[in-house]
Amino acid sequence: MTEITTEKARIGAPSAQPFINGFTEEGESLSPINSTESKAPLAGASAKSHSHGGGVGIPDSSRAGRLTSYNLADFKPLTGMEEDWRFTPLKRLRGLHTDALTGTAPEVLVTAPLGVLVETVDRNDNRIGSAAIPEDRVSANAWENFTEATVITVPAEAQVADEISVLITGQGTEASAQHIVIEAKKFSKAVVVLDHQGTAVVSQNVEILVGDGADLTVISLQEWHDDSVHASSQQAKLGRDAKFKHIVVSLGGDLVRMTPSARFTATGAEVELLGLYFADAGQHLEQRLFVDHSVANCKSNVLYKGALQGKNAHTVWVGDVLIRKEAEGTDTYEANRNLVLTDGARADSVPNLEIETGLIEGAGHASATGRFDDEHLFYLMARGISEEVARRLVVRGFLNEIIQKIKVPALEERLTAAVERELAATNN
Amino acid sequence: MSTLEIKDLHVSIDTEQGTKEILKGVSLTIKTGETHAIMGPNGSGKSTLASTIAGHPRYNVTGGTITLDGEDVLAMSVDERARAGLFLAMQYPVEVPGVSMTNFLRTAKTAIDGEAPSLRHWTKDVKAAMAQLRIDADFTQRNVNEGFSGGEKKRVEILQLELFKPRFAILDETDSGLDVDALKVVSEGVNRAHAEGNMGTLLITHYTRILRYIKPDFVHVFVDGQVVEEGGPELADRLEEEGYDRYAKGAGAASIAAAAAAAQA
Ligand SMILES: Nc1ncnc2c1ncn2[C@@H]1O[C@H](COP(=O)(O)OP(=O)(O)OP(=O)(O)O)[C@@H](O)[C@H]1O
Ligand SMILES: [Mg+2]
């Protein structure tokens, strides 16, 4: 197994952004000026963990060894001690991990340009299970309980200019299950927006198939009401030379846990996983992603950025990237950056890069959590800028990097406005 | 014409070892059009004075006053002071993540003037000012001070001075860390701002070098939190030759004045 340092790896990762100064790689740092006794260190520092590969003798810690199954019974009840649940407050899952998910599933309303096929099918449809197998108990619980699924198909070679809008509206707080399949057939091109609104307690499986040479963007936007709980496994399977861009935007909800993954089935494919989250007081926003490089010559690039403000705002980012022995020529880079705006908020960030072959183009990872501190604030205010505007300026700039990559103008505007609202909402 | 008046200023900070008094009664009056140089050894409290005027929260004013045309500066928040016309070019400008220079400059200008600058003129002004200070045009795209070299940070401070047009500029060791060429460029910037005739300058420095380019009207020698000697530009020349050694730390202003008098006799 080859150990590749982040520095070296960054050379092979042209998409790497320069680091925010005053932030360090591999964890959080405080402004040196601000590290006097009165300032509490960022929570999360102690929870930082970090690994290159599973290491000999602990096969469990390798992502390759994770249990996957369509049967709920195969997954043990959760205790909270599991590696993949250790940050999640199970009590706030509202039964998604324990109860039969019989509540009314969020309503799905698809607005699609002509040519895109939208179907509602029952659970025996043969496309179900074509891209995903549950990787955890909550996902398996949804699989066990969903009654019908929405299947969206972009036909081969169709170039769909306007985005396919999937409005998903919560129907209340009874624990429910949902299933969606998105298939972009070969050489097609489309953008799908999963737009989550209202109040829901839902475990969701989204299967995504990106055919040979297809170019698909999926944006999952969580603007739930404050009382919502949402667990979403969004698994993508990519064909030869396929391009897949996945963007998570989590803003609303009491607990949102997104677990996107990408798997390659043939060479030449590229995946970009992006994320933006903004946690307010009391919110738990978790994202755990997995990129499985199991074939040669594929690329992946991951960038998640999060802002936190308010008491007990908690974000979790875990990035598992596995480069298997046969995945020669892989080029991958993953990064997570968090900006903590107030005391009492906590950002956990854990990049896991496992490399089983040395014959790769590049592999790197970075994690940085910085805080908007008194010195930043002083500098901006000393130029006449009010505290409120200063804060806004910093957050907007920080999150814009992701918003700009969405490339759907209407959505960019909407997200910019949503971020502004987040900033205005909590007057911490 | 405006006056910035500092009277018997006492400032302390909280440290792990307890409260530490840093400024021990500083009085200073600066008027529009004047340039005052404050010179003193490391740790004498020069930056403390500058930061206190700007309103840095770490410094506690335990006595004395700061007024701007009679208005109580100490009662103003940091941003209010800037909008009232005070500008601090910092010794160690802070890197601000996520905020581009373009965005920052426009936001600050808007805040200080109370209205957004006309976009066309503003872009032109910024470009011209940058060119004069030999700052690369691509700096506008970069985040505030992020990854700038020490010298670049200082130029960008002076860029702001020229764009924001304050009534009083406090330059905290703007000269340190600059090579001769950069020093000239930066000094020209300060002189241009000064030449407009509406600015008073408090130039804090360690070395007399910059005083060849920026001519002070008054020189104040700062030792151990106090002004121990004051004079005209000729005092700077003497400091150049003799250094600060004769102002032994701990010696009160009175004894130094006496020593100076004795030396002249
Ligand atoms: N946060 C702090 N904790 C402890 N001591 C401090 C702190 N800030 C300033 N001081 C002390 O206050 C005194 C004055 O510092 P100040 O930075 O004002 O000096 P200065 O004259 O600007 O020095 P220099 O020429 O090195 O810039 C010094 O003794 C310094 O060590
Ligand atoms: Mg200093």
Features:
heterodimer; A: 428 residues; mainly beta; ten-stranded mixed sheet; 5 helices; disordered N terminus; B: 265 residues; alpha/beta; Rossmann fold; six-stranded mixed sheet; four-stranded antiparallel sheet; 8 helices; 26% strand; binds adenosine-5'-triphosphate; binds magnesium ion
Structure in words:
The complex is a heterodimer of chains A (428) and B (265). Chain A has helices at residues 6-11, 137-145, 374-381, 387-403, 409-425, and strands at 27-28, 51-52, 107-111, 117-122, 148-154, 164-169, 172-184, 189-197, 200-210, 215-223, 229-238, 243-252, 255-264, 270-279, 284-293, 299-308, 314-323, 331-340, 346-355, 362-371. With 428 residues, chain A is mainly beta. The relative contact order of chain A is 0.14. Residues 1-60 of chain A have low confidence and may be disordered. In chain B, the strands form two sheets. Chain B has a six-stranded mixed β-sheet with strand order 6-7-8-3-9-10, with helices on both faces. In chain B, strands 2-1-4-5 form a four-stranded antiparallel β-sheet, with helices on one face. Chain B is globular, with a radius of gyration of 19 Å. Chain B has eight helices and ten strands. The longest helix of chain B is centred in the last third of the chain and has 16 residues, at 180-195. The chains are: A mainly beta (428), B alpha/beta (265). The A-B interface holds A 18, 20-23, 36-38, 339, 370, 372, 374-376, 378-387, 389, 393-400 and B 14, 16, 54-57, 77-79, 81-83, 88, 90, 93-100, 103-104, 107-108, 111-112, 143-147, 160, 164. Magnesium ion (MG) is lined by residues 46-47, 91, 172-173 of chain B.
Largest interface: A-B, 33 and 35 residues
The backbone outline of chain A, from C-alpha atoms, is: globular
Low-pLDDT parts of chain B are none
The chain-level mean pLDDT of chain A equals 86
- The general outline of chain B is globular
